[in-house]
Amino acid sequence: MTKLDPKRARALATRAWQAVSSGDVSALERIYNDDIVWHVSGRGPRAGDHRGREAVLAYLASVGEAAERFEASLEDVLVGDDRLAFLMRASGRREGRTLEATYLILVRLENGRLAEVWSTALDQYAVDAFWA
Fold first, then answer.
1. Buried (b) or exposed (e) across 48-66, using 16+ Cβ within 10 A?
2. How far from the centroid of its chain's Cα atoms is residue 79's Cα?
3. CB neighbours of 117 closer than 8 A, spacing ≥ 6?
4. Measured between alpha carbons, how far is 11 from 30 in angstroms, rounded to an integer?
5. In percent, how much of the chain has pLDDT > 90?
6. Sign of the alpha-carbon dihedral angle for 92, 25, 59, 117
7. Which of 29, 62, 120, 123 gives 20 to 30 Å between its CA and that of 41?
């Protein structure tokens, strides 16, 4: 694999984060591979593998639709030779439950686009209880 240029990788990560945060579907369509796979940890209704751009976009939309409030902040972006990692903080409110959680999101790039994503909550039990 070609080694990532740290500046370009960080810029791509920032664009992807901004697009997800603002619900900019057209930007996400340009950033995601057609056959992207998003792996979500846990046992909740959104856990599992979401395959293909449409499935990933539907998954992301469902997160916002299912919560009364769901906010996320990007804490850090780490750039490796062929992967990116995001450290994210999320807070939310849903059906009388609240969430304060940290996630590690690992991204594999392919041809300058997001090809595969692993989203893992550091406190999986709290996240599963929130979405139950």
1. eebeebeebbebbeebeeb
2. 16
3. 36, 37, 38, 39, 56, 105, 106, 107, 108
4. 14
5. 58
6. negative
7. 29
**Burial class of residue 123 (count of CB atoms within 10 Å of its CB; 0-12, 13-18, 19+):** middle
Here the tokens at position 92 are: 């939310």
Spell out the domains of the chain, with CATH numbers in brackets.
Answer: 6-131 (3.10.450.50)
Euclidean distance between CA atoms 58 and 77, whole angstroms: 24
Residue carrying the six token digits 């990692």: 85
pLDDT of residue 2: 62
Triad 111, 72, 26: Cα angle to 5°: 45
**Rounded Cα distance, 11 and 5, in Å:** 10
pLDDT single digits (tens) 83-98: 999 999 999 999 999 9
pTM for the model: 0.88
